[in-house]
User: Fold this.
Amino acid sequence: MRVFLYLIVGVVLFYIDSIIGLLIPMHLGHFEFNFIPHLILLYILLITIYRGFGIGLIFAILFGIVTDVYVGSVYGLYIFGYLALVVIFDKFLKVFYRDYT
Assistant:
């Protein structure tokens, strides 16, 4: 049951991320900046910390595929990026965060 809750929260964050990217452009002179918060990436990294490396990898693959299909510019870019960041984050987390209890 928790897995479905995690998936629902991830889908909601995915759509909120897309909406924020569309609604909040910033104009500075003749330039337009679009700030995209990447909430789904932060969510995947938090899942990796609190639920484990395996679940973080599964969510990185799932939401990477969804983001690649939704954005559609370069396929495989988000899935590779999410997977690489989860692996790097897990390696650094094991070095800096050791729970001895």
